[in-house]
Amino acid sequence: MLSDRRNPPPLSLWVLDFAASDAPAVPGTSSRTGNIMRYVCIVLLATVMFSGCGQKPFIQKGSSMEPTIKAGETIRVQMDAYRSATPQRWDVVTFTPPMHSVSAGSDTDNLGIWTFRVVGLPGETISFDDAGLSINGKIPNDRPILIQNIQYKETTASGVPSRPRSPTYPFTIPDGRYFVLGDNPDHANDSRLWGSLPRESILGKVKNK
């Protein structure tokens, strides 16, 4: 689960203030040159400001994404990442959990926004065996370095029993839905327990994870 952080002051006001001010020209420059330099400064400031637009900070609660995201760590979420794109395998996404998932049991709070990694895409078939996770009958060999040593199992190590909505394997992901897993699978209330995640529940993509 994640908690929202207080939004920073609106930097757009600073840009508007600067643009509207009668800032003195730089000594030794003409009025025209000074205006050009002032315009360049405005553009640079606006570029820095808008490069952070669409991002929102959250604090990770719980250990379900360790060691990639530690409990208490602040992460930045690109809230418009999927406005014109679709989630890709291995993306770390934030989402509102399906209502039936909150009773599946986890080591985190049951309300709020959750974070997991996209593993299965719409139409793909997920299965587990002694070798771990398989997608369409093949073990994925393109895992990011951060999760190359993770051993995904059908259930959590603590032996959490199957739930009414737990998938049976092989499990084919319905259209418009995704299979998400925690990087700490022994302590993750993820798709293994409550099934696939609807696309419309995904809020954004965690940066640099």
Structural overview:
By secondary structure, this protein is α+β, with helices and mostly antiparallel strands. The chain contains 3 helices and 11 strands; from the N terminus they run βααββββββββαββ. Helix 1 runs antiparallel to helix 2. It is elongated and about 75 Å long. About 16% of the residues have low confidence.
Principal-axes geometry comes out as elongated
- Structural class category: alpha+beta
Strand order in space, largest sheet: 1-2-3-11-4-5-9-10
Q: Compute the average pLDDT.
A: 76
Strand count, sense and closure of the main sheet?
8 strands, antiparallel
List the uncertain runs. 8-24, 46-52, 103-111
Strands, total number: 11
Distance between the termini: 16 Å
Helix content bin: 10-25%
Count of DSSP H/I helices: 3
Q: Could you tell me the radius of gyration in angstroms? A: 22 Å
Tell me the fraction of residues in β-strands, as a range.
15-25%
In short:
17% of the residues lie in helices and 23% in strands. It has 209 residues and is α+β, with helices and mostly antiparallel strands.
